[in-house]
């Protein structure tokens, strides 16, 4: 491993310890060539191994230049690691040998040296775009954010649960689902027998399964893929996306849920900022120059009813007229965020008839609401959605009966028959989180392999 | 949060700091009742909140007993936390008030007080089995192992990649796949249009997608669900299971890959043993009394050819006759592990014709092999599988052409045209790992919601 640890060193904020340094004095470095600059007396290479945005500068005798030493080629360089005379880097490698392990046909390679390709352009090459600086940075940030999410929950005593991907539940009854068959079933059509005996779907949320666990653990979370078969080409939707979901037992207040959302956001964002500052800087410099990371230093909390009033009094006209009882549309969310000063906005207590059966009845009137909360953020809209869950058996039974779902959810009612506790939770869209902190307009650019209608490349 | 932190304290190896302790002196504790013992002068409760296997002992005046204070009910107890006179526990709670927040109908509740239910029994109740001690311990261990896997790779400079769940690739061409359709497509049968325009499947491995990333990062890993539509009722197979996969660039030796497998195993197992010793102990005491965790203190390495020779000379007869060129069967794996002294066994260099197209040609003869490695472990069989990947364009092209796959894998060939590097990687079945360290016979008992043929509960 030592052999390729060199670039990690370059990303250190201060020069390495002299003892370590001695070990690294005579070095092999492997990576991909980002630039070649041949001068009369010296050959400069920049190579990168993906461990950071920074390249390692290699200085060599021009005699070491070869025909296949081009942009995009993979090289192994052996030489001496020395303090660099340049201000921009700590160290450079004085090459003794340069070995091209994998050449690159630059004429057919879609990425070009030192060119800042637009995100739309590199999106066409899902198998090569990770070699682009911007996507490289994105993937490092995504990786750190993932680790940060696991640490946050781990440090706060949550038990991680792998909620199932394949489920016989149609969780919310809303939206199109993906159905699963074995490939041989898919070919034969009439009179299907199902592999699982029952129709099976890809999960739209791990919530109900987390609620199972919330009957034995007071804090649980899951972080995995979820699916929607929506035929949308929106810049905020994917058919396959990642969701962080948490469930807390023994809580009777939406405020507890909002606090966890906020803490999660702050902790993960601090981790990302401290672990890959240069990668984040790239986004804020070239992709979203207006973007600033708002570390939730201020936020705003309004009720759904207040939100509707604000919208009704807005000087602008909306395509969808704001009306109590109707869902907030993207244009409404945008206006509310602007109205509150471009800060994160918690909207609480939504109409009872608008929300799924599991949300807790506020028993209020005349406008009947449930204890739900959505978190809206600038540029992205809904980032998190959560609620207290209806833990009271009679309330849940009568609601499920009215919806004709009582038979399908006997197991869910069981959770309320045996040691039910007040509880609640939320989900955060991981890609939307990345869009928000980095200022990335299109959700397809914050996931390694985007899946959406009409597209499933590789 | 403080309110429910109390049980965390009980799981601390040493008594808490006096300052913290003072804070916790007057306490609310919420949890589920594990036992009720009413004596003439005192009422004993054991409550558990899932943070550890240990219960909190609550001591109360018998006047606080109520009819619905039963096994399985959820309670909130307010009282004084004091040092316990009993040796078995650090502290106990002297209750002032006991509030039953959620009663439990013990007559219809399938779990019974102080009964050690067999795993097969609790498996029938996927929505309630987490309230059983054994499953509670399993889920805590699974959670710690998950965190340990993320930390191991994070600490070793790996970039985490979310490889896609839905894919248009049929990675290995082997085994039955699950195919995906929107639920409306599934209903209409003839003349299908696909949501993604192409047939789409659930992934069987993230390897090819990790290889994409191994062209920009020298170390990458993924940890997520994978799927097989095998109609098997084996105790080692699931339709949905979790796999850890890693890919390393700039490596030319299988030894590097094996070293990472071993380091991963050792690090994660140490984490689990130090984070939840009591939970592991439960398994080794009641589930698999003969089980000892072998921390890879010794292992064995043989070639496939040697393995076949060992099998041929075995004094026992096999259902499948061992023959060079044939796959190793479960009975063969078992014998090899026994032959090597019940330690982990690496088997390397498998027949070329037995393995998928991407494995690296050893260019040997007369018995033509590829640089593949399987790790076999006692009781479980194959735990990990890996290989060096064929990074040489001409080798890969001719193999794909012979297999008639050349058109489908143009993108994969591209990875070898543009800066190809020697690389390799492996996958480890997460459930099999848990089976191995805990001595759990059936794979259905180490995953929260098992999916297999004829079964997809919840």
UniProtKB/TrEMBL annotation, chains A, B:
- This entry's Enzyme Commission designation comes to 6.1.1.22
GO CC annotations, alphabetized = mitochondrion
Entry keyword set: Aminoacyl-tRNA synthetase, ATP-binding, Ligase, Nucleotide-binding, Protein biosynthesis, Signal
GO BP term, example: asparaginyl-tRNA aminoacylation
Q: Where are the transmembrane segments?
A: none
- Xref: InterPro entries: Aa-tRNA-synt_II, aa-tRNA-synth_II, aa-tRNA-synth_II/BPL/LPL, Asn-tRNA-ligase, Asp/Asn-tRNA-synth_IIb, NA-bd_OB-fold, NA-bd_OB_tRNA
Task: Please identify the protein, giving its name as recorded.
Answer: asparagine--tRNA ligase
Species source reads Malurus cyaneus samueli
């Amino acid at each position: 491993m030592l052999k390729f640890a060199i670039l990690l060193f370059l990303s250190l904020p201060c020069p390495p310890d002299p003892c370590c340094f001695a070990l690294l004095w005579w070095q092999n470095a492997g990576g991909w060539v980002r630039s070649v600059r041949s001068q009369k007396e010296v050959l400069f290479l920049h190579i990168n191994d993906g461990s950071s945005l920074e390249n390692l500068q290699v200085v060599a005798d021009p005699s070491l230049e070869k025909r296949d030493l081009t942009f995009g080629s993979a090289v192994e360089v052996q030489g001496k690691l020395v303090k660099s005379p340049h201000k921009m880097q700590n160290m450079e490698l004085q090459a003794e040998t340069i070995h091209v392990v994998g050449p690159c046909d630059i004429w057919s390679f879609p990425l070009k040296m030192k060119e800042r390709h637009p995100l739309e352009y590199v999106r066409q090459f899902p198998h090569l775009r990770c070699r682009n600086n911007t996507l490289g940075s994105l993937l490092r940030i995504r990786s750190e954010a993932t680790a940060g999410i696991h640490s946050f929950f781990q440090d706060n005593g949550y038990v991680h649960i792998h909620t199932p991907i394949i489920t016989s539940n149609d969780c919310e009854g809303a939206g199109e689902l993906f159905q699963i068959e074995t490939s041989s079933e898919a070919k034969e059509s009439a009179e299907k027998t199902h592999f699982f005996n029952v129709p099976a779907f890809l999960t739209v949320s791990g919530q109900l399964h987390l609620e199972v666990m919330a009957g034995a653990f007071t804090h649980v979370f899951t972080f995995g893929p979820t699916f929607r078969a929506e035929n949308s080409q929106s810049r905020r939707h994917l058919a396959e996306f990642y969701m962080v979901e948490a469930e807390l037992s023994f809580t009777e207040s939406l405020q507890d849920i909002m606090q966890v959302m906020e803490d999660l956001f702050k902790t993960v964002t601090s981790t990302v900022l401290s672990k890959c500052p240069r990668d984040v800087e790239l986004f804020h410099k070239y992709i979203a120059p207006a973007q600033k990371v708002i570390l939730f230093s201020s936020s705003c909390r309004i009720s759904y009813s207040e939100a509707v009033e604000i919208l009704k009094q807005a000087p602008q006209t909306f395509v969808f007229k704001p009306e109590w009882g109707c869902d907030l549309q993207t244009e409404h969310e945008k206006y509310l965020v602007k109205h509150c000063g471009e800060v994160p906005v918690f909207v609480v207590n939504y109409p009872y008839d608008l929300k799924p059966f599991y949300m807790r009845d506020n028993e209020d009137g005349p406008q009947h609401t449930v204890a739900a909360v959505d978190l809206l953020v600038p540029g992205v809209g809904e980032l998190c959605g959560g609620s207290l869950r209806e833990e009271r058996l009679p309330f849940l039974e009568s609601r499920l009966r009215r919806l004709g779902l009582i038979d399908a959810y006997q197991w869910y009612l069981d959770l309320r028959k045996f040691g039910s506790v007040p509880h609640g939770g939320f989900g955060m869209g991981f890609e939307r989180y990345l869009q928000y902190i980095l200022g990335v307009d299109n959700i397809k650019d914050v996931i390694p392999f985007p899946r959406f209608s009409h597209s499933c490349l590789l």
